Structure formats: C-alpha cells, structure tokens
Amino acid sequence: MVELPTRTEGQTQIVVANMDRIDASVAIRFKDCMRDVTDGGGQRCILDLSKVQFVDSSGLGAIVASMKQLEQGRRLDLAGLTPMVDKVFRLTRMDSVFAIFDSVEAALDTPG
Amino acid sequence: MSQPIAPIQNVAPNQCELVFPGLDTYTRHALDAVKTKLSRAGVAKADRERTEIILAEAINNIIEHAYGAEAAGQIQVRMDVTHDNITLTLTDSGCPMPGKGLPKKQEADLNCARSDLPEGGFGWLLIHQLSDKVTYVRHGSDNITTILLRRQNR
C-alpha cells in the first residue's frame, strides 16, 4: 500500500513517504503515486523520507523518476534520510543530484 | 500475499539456507530471515546493513534479469558466517548472465541534464562497492553467484 500524505507550507509542497521501505516491490506504485500527488504542486517539493528505513536501487530509481516527472523549473528536495538510505544515496553519488536535508524543518529553513 | 520464509532447519549454527519464489513480494521476507541469522551470529551492525543491501540487490537482479518476463523460478540463498567473513551464495535457474560474466562496477555519469539522469543500473554498483569479492558460474542450467564480505566488525 503506497501512501503519500501531502501538505503545503507557503509555496512548498511536502510529501511524506509513509512506508518503511521503498524497494522493488513498491517502486512502480511509488513513482505513479508521486506523479499524482505532485501534479499541480508548487515550485518546490520536499520528500520527507524520515519513516523510510531502507531504499534499494529500484526505490532509488523511483525517487529519481519522481524528480524527472516534475515540470521544468520545479525541484524535488529530500529530507530526513535515515542511515541506510543515506548510505545508498552516497554510494551511488545521488547525494550530488538531490539537495538533502536532515529534516523537513531544516529544508524549509533553507530557501529552495 | 507472500508468507515469511522458514529457513531450512538442518544447517550449522552459522549457516542459513532459504528457498523462495523469485518474486518481488518475497524479497523482504528473505532479507528478514537472513537479518535474524546475522543478529544471532553476533554480526556487527554495519556488516549486517552491508549484507542486507547486497542481498537485496542480488535478489533483485535475479528476479529482473535471470527470470525476467518468464515465469519466475525459485531462488536459493545460502549464507555462511565465519569469524572473518560472510559468504552469500545465490542459486537460480534463470537465463545466464549476458556475456557469461559479471557486470562491471560502472559509475554512472550524473553530470547531465535532469532528463538524462539514470533511473537504474545502480544494483551492481552497490554490490561491488560493499562486497569484497563476487564470482559467477553457470552450472548446468543454474546460475551460481557467490558474494564475499570481509567482516569489518562495526
């Protein structure tokens, strides 16, 4: 079950990845759900990954695809990466592709 | 709905053997069974985490490439934990590895336009980054992939 609750703070959309794993078994649904949820959203979207304990390469690909799905000029930032997820982003050097923040609050404090 | 996987019982204390269908919904249960064994064997946290990432990617590769669009066969995972090493042996009856050899550790060029960013191909990179040795053999109609991790004890 892919749940992506969303809220807006000013101009910024926050999407919460409400699952403990983003892996091959949910990657496609995650990507599709992100497309729906971010449709018509603001210039900046922050994906809150603080509940996610594990992301495999399929999950990583789905997060990249979610960013690519946004229209030109919109950005997807990541917040609250837990240690194993952070490790996977660093090993694949995806930490150079996304702006990554310790928390949603920290992301909101830093202008997009 | 997939079921938790019961490890095969009559193996040595620091061994674990599982057989399960090559379907995405079982991967998580295979990882859970292996993680339980790693904890019981006293393996340190970072080593357990490396093992989980490597095994997830190796299983994904079998499901996606060895079995692919064909009806999935079984995957057998064996793990041996010694004082110095963790050895994972994965056996499947899917297609052979293209070119009969392992994909190389290829780092993607991420310095490109957003629309050109890769969405895949990270699996082998992660396996190579986190393990110490990977071997592959084709044995009859089976693929046998062996992955060695030297325990870092952290």
Give a structural overview.
The complex is a heterodimer of chains A (112) and B (154). Chain A has helices spanning 27-38, 57-68, 83-91, 104-109; strands at 6-9, 12-16, 21-22, 44-48, 54-55, 75-79, 100-101. Chain A contains 4 helices and 7 strands. In chain A, the strands form 2 sheets. A 5-stranded mixed sheet of chain A has the order 1-2-4-6-7. Chain A has a two-stranded parallel ribbon with strand order 3-5. Chain A starts with 5 loop residues before the first strand and ends with a helix. The longest helix of chain A is centred in the first third of the chain and has 12 residues, at 27-38. Chain A is globular and about 30 Å long. Chain A has 112 residues and is α/β, with parallel strands linked by helices. Chain B has 154 residues and is α+β, with helices and mostly antiparallel strands. Helix content of chain B is 32%, strand content 25%. In chain B, strands 1-2-3-5-4 form a 5-stranded antiparallel sheet, covered by helices on one side. The mean pLDDT of chain B is 90. The A-B interface holds A 21, 23-25, 54, 56-58, 60-62, 64-65, 67-68, 83-84, 87-88, 91-94, 96-97 and B 24-25, 27-28, 49, 52-53, 56-57, 60, 63-64, 107-108, 110, 114-115, 117-123, 125-126, 129-130.
